[in-house]
Input
Amino acid sequence: MQQIDLNSLAQFVTLARHLNFRRAAAELTISPSTLSERIRELEARLGVRLLNRNTRSTSLTEEGERLLARAGDAVAVLGEAAAAVGNGAQAALTGRIRINGPAPAIELRLMPLVASFLARHPGVRIEAVSEGDLVDVVARGFDAGLRYDEALAQDMVAVRVGADQRMLVAAAPEYLARHGPPEHPEALARHACITHVFGSGNILPWSFEKDGQARDITPQGRLAVNSSAAALVAARAGHGLVYAFDDYLAEDLRSGRLVAVLEDWTPPFPGPSLYFTERRLMPPALRAFVDHVKAEGKVRAARG
Output
């Protein structure tokens, strides 16, 4: 077997993480064709096939899985060692972090942390992609994901992001003057509700809880949207009741453009969690971001 250079192994590990030549090449700042050629050269030197490739997908062979298991941590260690020299780890940290999650989790909890992290690490790039439906972050080439209290696979680690959150029901004063405020979640059946529809066609249920009683209501209404911004515009115009995160509603509630109802039925709940594959070692940029999230959580806890 010919001698294998570390750069080839690092390129293979990046490709194995993304299982997508275009995304891996972008992270490596080379062309997909160059990456493909270098992987073929690595396979030739090893005398084994590392990848199954076709026009639609890329997957690891059994030999590729074994090489990743042995080489992945070694490449990460070498990357961290290189980052620790020269101008220091803070200045030298580079790489891209791809995160997937629902828009509210990204906008309300992730973004404030991203801003402070990027200010400290100018060599890091973060891509935050929001989708209405849950996705397999590993299969889609993401480094991490955001979720609200969903069960995670056993090989995943979760770190809480941000403070508790709360959903509120609100409407314009004009709407409430015409129809009166609902006194109980069951009364929503008699109201115009501005619903949130996912790409799958499913309607987001409105969840309520009081004195140990839980209610999940699938609202009915003539208007359905798939963004909080659109729902708020409709609510301000008096089209009906909106169900949204309190952060989104805060300014409208302060100004009186909207009025909250059923507040005693909408207690706070834990914010989202950042989750990622459990590995002894992970890409330095992702590790630094996870540490940043943890540190910010401790600061919030100390402030009470």
